C-alpha cells in the first residue's frame, strides 16, 4: 500500500495472500476503505529485461541497473488526487465523504 502524503484508514479490510492493494492519496486527502476483501490474482510480476533492453538508452537507467521491471498484472489500484475526505466502498467505488 502506498500513502504518498495523504491518510489511509482501513476498516474491516482483508487482503488475501497473493493479492495486492495500492492506494495513492494526495496531500490533504483522507481515504477510508471499508468492509472489503481484495483477492485478485495475479497482482505484480517481475519481468527480467532482455539484453537488448539492458543495452538500450530508451530504457530508464534505474531499470537497466536493476535488470528487471515490475508490472501490475491486476492489483487493485486507487488514486486520489484531490484533498478532502473520501470513501472507497465494497464495490470499489470512490465517493466524497
Description:
The protein is mainly beta and 97 residues long. The chain has one domain. It contains two helices and eight strands. The protein has helices at 51-54, 61-66, and strands at 7-15, 21-25, 29-38, 44-48, 68-72, 76-80, 84-88, 94-96. The strands form three sheets. It has a four-stranded mixed sheet, with no helix packed on it. A two-stranded parallel sheet has the order 2-6. Strand 7 and strand 8 form a beta hairpin. The chain is elongated, with a radius of gyration of 17 Å.
Question: How does the SSE layout of this entry go?
Answer:
Layout (H helix, E strand, L loop, with lengths): L6 E9 L5 E5 L3 E10 L5 E5 L2 H4 L6 H6 L1 E5 L3 E5 L3 E5 L5 E3 L1
Parallel strand pairs: 1-3, 2-6, 3-7
Antiparallel strand pairs: 4-5, 7-8
- Give the helix level as a range of percent: 10-25%
Fraction of residues in β-strands: over 45%
**In total, how many domains does the architecture comprise?**
1
| Radius of gyration using CA atoms only | 17 Å
How many beta-strand runs?
8
Question: Keywords, please?
Answer:
single chain, 97 residues, two-stranded parallel ribbon, elongated
Short synopsis of the structure:
With 97 residues, the chain is mainly beta.
